[in-house]
From TrEMBL:
<dbReference type="InterPro" id="IPR006212">
    <property type="entry name" value="Furin_repeat"/>
</dbReference>
<comment type="similarity">
    <text>Belongs to the CRELD family.</text>
</comment>
<feature type="domain" description="EGF-like">
    <location>
        <begin position="138"/>
        <end position="179"/>
    </location>
</feature>
<dbReference type="InterPro" id="IPR009030">
    <property type="entry name" value="Growth_fac_rcpt_cys_sf"/>
</dbReference>
<feature type="disulfide bond">
    <location>
        <begin position="169"/>
        <end position="178"/>
    </location>
</feature>
<dbReference type="Pfam" id="PF00053">
    <property type="entry name" value="EGF_laminin"/>
</dbReference>
<keyword id="KW-1015">Disulfide bond</keyword>
<keyword id="KW-0732">Signal</keyword>
<dbReference type="GO" id="GO:0005509">
    <property type="term" value="F:calcium ion binding"/>
</dbReference>
<dbReference type="InterPro" id="IPR002049">
    <property type="entry name" value="LE_dom"/>
</dbReference>
<protein>
    <recommendedName>
        <fullName>EGF-like domain-containing protein</fullName>
    </recommendedName>
</protein>
<feature type="signal peptide">
    <location>
        <begin position="1"/>
        <end position="15"/>
    </location>
</feature>
<dbReference type="GO" id="GO:0048513">
    <property type="term" value="P:animal organ development"/>
</dbReference>
<keyword id="KW-0245">EGF-like domain</keyword>
<dbReference type="InterPro" id="IPR000742">
    <property type="entry name" value="EGF"/>
</dbReference>
<dbReference type="InterPro" id="IPR001881">
    <property type="entry name" value="EGF-like_Ca-bd_dom"/>
</dbReference>
<dbReference type="InterPro" id="IPR018097">
    <property type="entry name" value="EGF_Ca-bd_CS"/>
</dbReference>
Amino acid sequence: MHVLLLLPFFQLLHGLDVSNFVPKVSADISPCKSCKILVQSFEKGLEKTKNGHFGGGNTAWEEKNLLTYAKSEVRFVEIHDSLCTEISHDQDMCFYLSSEYEHHLKEWWTDGRQEDLFQWFCVDKLKVCCPPKHYGPDCLPCKGYPNVCNSHGTCKGDGTRKGNGSCKCKNGYEGTNCDHCANNYFVILKNNTFTCEECHKSCKDSCTESGPKGCDECKDGWVYMGEGEGCVDVDECLEQDVCTSQQFCINNDGSYSCLSCDPSCTDCYGDGNDMCFNCATGYIMKDKKCIDASEGYEVEEKTDGHQMEEL
């Protein structure tokens, strides 16, 4: 009965051309990355089997009179059969490539493995990758090669058959070869190389050195106090009527904030019922705090009653 039920399924499989099946992969994996994953898996297999030998018998005699295990087809088969088993992400694609291009891997193996596997397989044979610091269909050198993007950026398409080779500069750098400092950064020269460091937060757009003294111009909220101090924060809270009477002022670097007083205050100089200038309706000042008026009367009544008892 079970065989009869499964028969249509086997007939369906028999009619499919599984040789053309390409597994679905995540959107972020490129042909080059897929090839690298397979090569890395093969290299792990090489490492695992580097101390291996033919099983059974007199291994020394076998290696003297036969092919050595290190170069044998037996070792290749062991490596190939274990390919991709350690991979968790995009494993199906790795299995597919290992099967699809087994003949190429076998060719590299039997030719003596004279070349680097990645270069031979991914760059020269499949043409899905480029050597490091090269890009595009023709594997052209990246901008500024060999010192790509002045070491201050990355080459678009680096190591792949894609991209245009232009530089994507790191923060603080700009220019076609990342050879200039961006706005609000300044140059530091050392050992014939340059780096760009960010200006002080008080500087507006540009500076000549680090710290507030190096600003060419101060940002709003800062004031220039001469070469000795440079740009100094303006304390807006010292000015009158910065906040409303129901708020208190907090000074920040280059700015300020207005925060609401405690509900017990009509006006205040800080947060809490102990920082009121005057108490709101329904509150009274007690021990320099604005407390609920009813609580204040209860305290007074208890105090008066206690005093009467002592009398």
